[in-house]
Amino acid sequence: MSKFGARKTVLDGIEFDSAGEAQRYSQLKLLERARMILSLSRQPRFILCVNGQEVCEYRGDFAYFENGRQVIEDFKGVLTPEFRLKRKLFKALYPALELRVTNRKGEVLNIRTRKASKVAA
Questions:
Q1: Which 3 state secondary structure label does DSSP give 77?
Q2: Structural domain total, the chain
Q3: Does residue 60 surpass a pLDDT of 50?
Q4: CA 72 – CA 70 distance, rounded (Å)
Q5: Confidence (pTM)
Q6: With bands split at pLDDT 50, 70 and 90, how would you rate the model's confidence at 111?
Q7: CATH number for the domain that contains residue 28
Q8: Distances (CA, A) of 10 to 4, 14, 22, 44
Q9: Are 30 and 48 a contacting pair, CB within 8 Å?
Q10: Tens digit of pLDDT for each residue in 82-100?
Q11: Integer distance in angstroms from the first to the last C-alpha of the chain?
């Protein structure tokens, strides 16, 4: 169990950091089968560099294409200060990519306002 109470979960032979992340993967697989999203992959990795210096690495939970745009999705139960900083760096360094943060209720989190909205399941 993690420090936030998440339990590792195995689905389709894949280990996820939480049951919520595994459930979101199932939802995304259905969307992919329905061709609402394309090229679903897991754990996309991005090096975050500033002035040529590697600061850290950001690893999302999922990547896919939706309406011709690449989406990087992160499932979060808790928005830590570390994640908030990495999110800001990611958005500054990769402005062409959409970073979407979802929660266990199936909502897309608007981190700036802390409001949430439903996403397609």
A1: coil
A2: 1
A3: yes
A4: 7
A5: 0.80
A6: low
A7: 3.40.1350
A8: 18, 5, 7, 19
A9: no
A10: 988 999 999 999 999 999 9
A11: 26
